[in-house]
Write a structure and sequence with these properties.
Largest sheet: none
Structural class: mainly alpha
Helix content: over 70%
Protein name: DUF5753 domain-containing protein
Strand content: under 5%
Number of helices: 2
Organism: Streptomyces atratus
Radius of gyration: 17 Å
Length: about 45
């Protein structure tokens, strides 16, 4: 199922901006990502 959301109010936009920034801040990239994947694989094995 898919839907469309229209965000137009400044307070709503701010909420989404803050949420995106928090996700971006906590994201992992490159070598750190690989290390997390290897750790997960090791935990399963």
């Amino acid at each position: 199922m898919s839907d469309w959301v229209s965000i137009t109010q400044p307070t709503e936009i701010g909420l989404y901006v803050r949420a995106f920034e928090e996700l971006r801040r906590t994201a992992v990239y490159e070598a750190e990502t690989r290390a997390l994947i290897v750790k997960a694989i090791d935990a399963l094995g």
